[in-house]
């Protein structure tokens, strides 16, 4: 396991400096040449700043279960770090509790994830779990109601109760939820669509569902 990581971009570095993990060193343009910044982070999207930081501090899956009226987003094998980052940005902006991801066949919190989240990952509880279905079972035992996103479902997010302890489970755009994960949910919901494209980006779908849950909790 690496003992340090590199992140890049103005917002990710700024939020890391305000967050939980220690920032060990920062390189900035014009003091540091462009070629050096690219060498450190491997991306031209660094916006003139790169930082060396401690590894991302994941939480345990059980750490999200005891929080009153928790709202958790569970991602089933979403492998694009930019999608993970965009989801985390919505979760943090909404004030939701956290995110659950599997520790295999899934994007992790990388520099690209931090950049796509605009640094939101630095303030968010993100759990890596061995098995998503098992975590759902534990969540239900802890009083959660678990809704899975499925484009074929007959109920929309605003037609179900998303108050109280709630987990929203989303899969990949191509395959959706795996069958076992879908079967583990208490129910399935879909966002109605009228266009010719038959699927939303997972981060957009997550944002719609998260903010619908927040709306219900504020009324």
Which key terms come to mind for this protein?
9 strands; 32% helix; 219 residues; six-stranded parallel beta sheet; 7 helices
Distance from first to last alpha carbon: 46 Å
The name of the CATH architecture of the largest domain is 3-Layer(aba) Sandwich
Strand order of the largest sheet: 6-5-4-8-7-9
Which CATH class of the largest domain applies here? Alpha Beta
Q: CATH topology of the largest domain, anyone?
A: Alpha/beta knot
Label the overall shape: globular
- What is the oligomer described by this structure? single chain
Residue ranges: pLDDT <50 for 5 or more in a row? none
Please outline the major beta sheet: 6 strands, parallel
The ordered string of helix (H) and strand (E) elements is EHEHEEHEHEHEEHEH
Rounded Rg = 18 Å
Instruction: List how many beta strands DSSP finds.
Output: 9
Mean pLDDT across the residues is 94
> Roughly what fraction of the amino acids lie in strands?
15-25%
Count of helices?
Answer: 7
The domain count comes to 2
CATH superfamily of the largest domain: SPOUT methyltransferase, trefoil knot domain
Description of the molecule:
The chain is built from 7 helices and 9 strands. It is of the alpha/beta class. The protein folds into 2 domains: 5-53, no CATH class; 61-218, SPOUT methyltransferase, trefoil knot domain (Alpha/beta knot, 3-Layer(aba) Sandwich), CATH 3.40.1280. The strands form 2 sheets. Strands 6-5-4-8-7-9 form a 6-stranded parallel beta sheet, with helices on both faces. Strands 1-3-2 form a 3-stranded antiparallel beta sheet, sandwiched between helices.
């Amino acid at each position: 396991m690496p003992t340090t990581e590199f992140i890049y971009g103005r917002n990710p570095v700024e939020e890391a400096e305000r967050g939980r993990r220690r920032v060990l060193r920062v390189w900035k343009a014009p003091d540091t040449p462009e070629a050096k910044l690219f060498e450190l982070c491997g991306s031209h999207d660094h916006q003139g700043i790169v930082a060396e930081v401690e590894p991302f501090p994941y939480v345990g899956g059980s750490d999200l279960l005891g929080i009153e009226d928790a709202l958790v987003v569970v991602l089933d094998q979403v492998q694009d770090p930019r999608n993970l980052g965009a989801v985390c940005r919505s979760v943090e902006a909404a004030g939701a509790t956290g995110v659950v991801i599997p520790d295999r066949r899934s994007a992790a919190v990388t520099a690209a994830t931090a950049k796509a989240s605009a640094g939101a990952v630095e303030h968010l509880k993100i759990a890596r779990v061995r098995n998503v279905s098992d975590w759902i079972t534990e969540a239900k035992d802890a009083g959660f109601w678990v809704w899975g996103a499925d484009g074929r479902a007959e109920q929309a997010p605003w037609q179900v109760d998303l108050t109280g302890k709630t987990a929203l489970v989303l899969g990949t755009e191509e395959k959706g939820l795996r069958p076992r994960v879908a079967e583990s949910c208490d129910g399935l919901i879909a966002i109605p669509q009228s266009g010719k494209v038959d699927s939303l980006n997972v981060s957009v779908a997550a944002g719609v569902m998260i903010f619908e849950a927040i709306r219900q909790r504020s009324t």
